[in-house]
Amino acid sequence: MPVLRIPTPLRVYTGGQSDVTVSGVTVSAALADLTARHPDIRPHIMKDDGELRAYVNLFRGEENVANLQGLQTPLAEDDRLRIIPSIAGG
Amino acid sequence: MLPELSHEEILRYSRHLLIPEVGLEGQRKLKASSVLVIGTGGLGSPVDLYLAAAGVGRIGLVDYDVVDTTNLQRQVIHGTSTVGKLKVDSARARMLDLNPDIQVDTYNEPFTSENAMRIAKDYDVIVDGTDNFPTRYLTNDVSVFLGKPNVYGSIYRFEGQASVFYAKEGPCYRCLFPEPPPPGLVPSCAEGGVLGVLPGTIGTIQATEAIKLLLGIGTTLVGRLLIYDALDMTIESVRLRKNPNCRVCGPNADIHELIDYEAFCGVPGHDHESGSAGAGWDIDARQLAELLTEPNPPLLLDVREPHELEISRLPKEVNIPLGSLASRLPELDSARDMVVFCKGGTRSARALELLVSAGFKKVKNLKGGINAWAKEVDPKMPVY
Question: What is the DSSP-derived secondary structure letter of residue B104?
Fold first, then answer.
């Protein structure tokens, strides 16, 4: 099943887990699975209408899903998803 | 005409001159070039040191802060002997000790919309080593407007990012992050901490990229974001593309001059805890000490992470970390007076907002956090 990489600032909402295995054949389904299991993360990555928030970048492999088919981007069994967080420390 | 190298410089840069990609001409290019480094902190430290050592002819440093003891766990350009001194002066002295043949120009002022274009216009490359969102957006926009590459690095706990944002050749910072996260979502290093060696790794990558850009060699991080995880020891990269809707570098850009970045991000342009929840919501440490001697003292709600309690704690406190407060509200009695606190007052101010929006009325924020308590009430308690 696809694995979703959770960035450090959001791990407080996944019980500290950095990699979450998700089920679903699209990005949308995978996010639904993630937020069903970790409901606290939902408002931090999605708006009420289910769209990704503007400061959240989701990548499938090396490519931003915004440059693919957005939330309808298909997922294969061995795909890796990754949320790129906006961090500012220096 | 590139400047000549003296015999002393040829000896100093011997190991560069041996590399065909640098050579004598490359070293002369470095001598003729200039880099502006925004921030003289965790990222700025290795960037400044390595650019100085490499012989970049003119290096500008922008910072308005003074060296603090809590900086020294990662800001290796400074030292115990420079605590209390201006960061730009501390860094400049160390850089000129490493390499007296370079010029170091210092700007002891915050980098703002008012001075940024004036400061940055005469440099070839800009390095973003700041610690806050407003200055990152400002640094990006200045770089786009001046047509200069912005060598980006950012860190949090064990995780780092690096890229080269260069709108002439690829995406800019806003192409990836059109909007900042809402205030409070992403903790700063002052609140959340950072592994001291992490900015060393990311900063040296930034210095590498700056030198490659100046020399015009290799493949830079333009169009790629490097993601480093020190805990797993992985380095991965993702592809970045120009965002057609980018408001500063897209075809329909509508931002053509610098804006108010603190208003845009909703946070101040520095990573210092104000420690306040705003007028009327704060209580100071001495007032709290008096309240605790009365018959019905307030509940002390500590919203720090459990491992921070090993450093310091208040008697009879209740610990609910900020991240789980929303789901644990039923454990709290809204009829009882309550004082919320954390390390410095930032997380507790957010906890207070959450409590008030959930209907709690008798809540106060301990201004300056438990560190203020340690300084003002209990000198035996450590400050961290």
Answer: E
